Amino acid sequence: MVLTSATQELFGCLADEDVTGESPYKLLKKDDIIQDIKTRAAVSDFSPVKQIVLDYPEDELLLVYDRDFTYEQCFYLVLTPEAKDRILNPPEPETSQVLENVVNKTPEPKEWISLGSELEIDEESIKETREKLWYKFSRVRRKFGVPVCFSDRNTADAKDGYLECASYQDSRFSIKQMQRDCGMQAVPRLQSSSAQTQWYRNIFTQYVPRELSDEEKENILQFESLNNFCNSVTPRVLQALQQEEIMNGFFDDWKALGAAAEDGDWSGKVSEGLMLYQAFTDQKYTKDKKISSINWHPTIYGVLAVALTEQKEERTKDSTTFVVTPSVILFYSFSDPSIPQLLLECPDDIFAFEFCPSDPNIIVGGCINGQVVLWDISAHVTHLLGTQPGSKKVSDLDDNQENKTPVVRYCAVSALESRHKAPITDVQWLPPTFEVTRSGLPVENKYNISVQVVTCSPDCTIMFWDLRMQRLLSHSATDRKQSVDQKTQMTPYSVPDTFKHLDRTWKPLFRVLQGLRDGEIVHTDWKLEKDDSGRLQSAKPLHCFNIHHWLVNTVQRSPFYKDIILTTGGWNFAIWKEGVMVTPPQVCTSGCWSLSRPAVFFIGKDDGSIEVWNLMEKTSEPAQVHAHITNAKITCIKPWTASSKQHFLTVTDDIGMVRVLEIPKVLYVPTRNESLSVKKYFELEEERLNDFLKREELWAQQKREAEELKRKTVS
């Protein structure tokens, strides 16, 4: 029964006051209950049991306070006199007869003696080693409270009369299994054989191992030669078993010393220079073309993509014949370097492209004509993984091998009237943590999904592009998230319609105009300021340096120090620290930082050589110079970490060749306290340059004062 506080107070049975867990019983008079039912009618808590109370033969009913909610309520009413007597006067438990002269003793635990079993139990026990996955299921609000309609289903529609949710390989993930725990058991050696018999005859045979009889075994054991062999071998076997218990006999001391074959050649000499690991080229697509950009696939091992552009002399060459060559982005793989694994069709040559950090299947590229292009390769990820059912290796002698490579057409291209007026030299995805509004104001990205792209061009314009529909920019980014999670839909022309709403109509969300000259480095703070009319506009640059003699081709922050920047362009490269510069004279075409060592960076040169700079060894000249990596000008270099013991450096040249160089151990394993030493070096260099600038300003002031004094003396 449920008794309200008013009823409890009326009958003197307040919970935890009049009745408690130790004294839960309360006798209620039958007349009082009947009077309460007459007075409060249906409001009375006893109205549901009115007839039961009227039929009760005695004058008092037993009410029990149920603190533990045994019957799902805080009180229960006893309805029969027998049950009331049994509750108020419970029967005494029967006591067993105790035999005389027998003393019951409590058993005492014995002392635990460890024999090592607890270690085996601990090893075999299952322990959680990774974080649990959290899943959130939701539905749209308009479906709340909607009635559910069930219908009959034919059991023949599904296998065995049930719906099977079979597992499938998710094309968006590539997980490499590093370790597996499996059991093994030794079995007799199996042998397969065949015979020329009809298919309806014996299909398989089974045999048992042939063993010696007990009599033959006894005779062999009597041989004197066998006894001598066992006597000579037994001590050595016992010694080997004893040594195995003391130390691991299979431990490779040579490898532990760092002189194994993977660290150098078989003579034990450790390699200190870059070594060619793999080379890629394709005469059909790379002929008379240079590689303008290169990127490793973020999730698939050994897959890289390169963008091709025509050489300048080919574009300006006056010829009576005009041959149209397709503009494509090629995907190469370590598994089959002979041919491209995937082709991305482009409306024009691509200068730069990038994989989306939120979804590697989405790729954005910048064309030479100033347009922005989008691709979706979700339908071809299985092919790149090399696990496509029925796929076969294509022979190098196959004349139709180009038909075997899948071609992906672009999903969307920006509007021609809203393009850059010069080639797009770089394109980058904005980080998933923030986005910009139409007025250029940075705001937080609450959904942590990259949906905006920024492009730059020699037309002195920086443009921001948004992948969402124009009318939805003021809304949330959930639509973009749903399109990423859903399976890519295909149109009849095998073109994914992921960005169908942007094709030919895509316009920049926001643009920044800068009046820069070739080779200038600008350092500014992304902060909007109001002009005299009150309109928001971009802040003026904090610093502007004209240090490079031609277009800047590399601007890259150090992965270890956020205030250290490497730039290359023209005839030199420079290292900056928020306005402070260090630059030796070099002929440079590209550059990049090492991903594992703060003091190491790589510079590509016009003559096809690569310089390896190590600030821990030398600061005035490169630590290593690898000449003749290629006979053409190096266009791009990009590092990639395959594993903790395998680091690569990708090098592309002006004739469409891709080379993957393996970085030696001495160049990717940092030395002790290297990070602190390099940081200290940059600080000392900054102090030296600041002192030089102050002295230069002082000398200029002294020179002006001397000229002024000389002019006064003459006058």
Overview of this protein structure:
The protein contains 14 helices and 34 strands. The strands form ten sheets. The protein has a five-stranded mixed sheet. A four-stranded antiparallel sheet has the order 4-34-33-32, with no helix packed on it. By secondary structure, it is of the alpha+beta class. It is extended, with a radius of gyration of 41 Å. Its main location: cytoplasm. It comes from Dicentrarchus labrax. GO terms for molecular function: dynein heavy chain binding; dynein light chain binding.
Question: Layout of helices and strands, plus pairs?
Answer:
Blueprint: H1 5-11, E1 25-29, H2 30-40, H3 50-55, E2 60-65, E3 75-77, H4 81-88, H5 117-124, H6 214-221, H7 224-246, H8 253-256, E4 275-280, H9 283-286, E5 289-296, E6 303-310, H10 312-316, E7 328-333, E8 342-345, E9 350-355, E10 362-367, E11 372-376, H11 381-385, E12 407-408, E13 412-413, E14 426-429, E15 434-436, E16 442-444, E17 452-457, E18 461-466, H12 478-485, E19 510-513, E20 520-523, E21 528-530, E22 536-538, E23 543-546, E24 552-557, E25 564-569, E26 572-577, E27 580-582, E28 588-593, E29 600-605, E30 610-614, E31 624-626, E32 634-643, E33 646-653, E34 658-662, H13 665-668, H14 674-714
Parallel strand pairs: 8-12
Antiparallel strand pairs: 1-2, 2-3, 4-34, 5-6, 6-7, 7-8, 9-10, 10-11, 11-13, 14-17, 15-16, 17-18, 18-19, 20-23, 21-22, 24-25, 25-26, 26-27, 28-29, 29-30, 30-31, 32-33, 33-34
